[in-house]
């Protein structure tokens, strides 16, 4: 780490521009520039990846892998797209719609309320493999992370989302 950063008790960073908050710059010319070494960049990247991201390749299923999985076992497909998106673009047969914005609330519901709202026993979330689906995979990745917070162990995403599913079908 730069000696500048070690000496500054409080600092802020904007891209490569680093400055002390005790003596903020008054003009763009007064910025101090700091470029981390390759080793420091690797360390920072590894820390960020470990703490905030779940690697998609560990939990991502291609459309063909999902088709095989659907043929072999009882998989629970949860489509986290909005109902309007599903109505406009279609859905995978057998999927249940729990919009991403409602997911945390849905996972907090009790058994009877959950069954009434979504049409299946809430215990299946913990006993069947789950596959989250969205348009391209971003919301489903976030949904996967939320499911892990609720103790769901066997969860996956459809890599490339519904768009990849439709492309492979055509």
From TrEMBL:
Keywords for this entry? Answer: Stress response
Q: Which GO terms describe its molecular function?
A: thiosulfate-cyanide sulfurtransferase activity
SMART domains attached here?
A: RHOD
Recorded hits in Pfam families, A to Z, give:
Rhodanese
Does the keyword field hold Magnesium? no
Q: Which InterPro entries match?
A: Rhodanese-like_dom (IPR001763), Rhodanese-like_dom_sf (IPR036873)
| Gene Ontology CC entries for this record | mitochondrion
Domain (Rhodanese): residue spans on this chain: 71-170
Name of the featured protein: Heat shock protein 67B2
Q: What is the lineage of its organism?
A: Eukaryota, Metazoa, Spiralia, Lophotrochozoa, Platyhelminthes
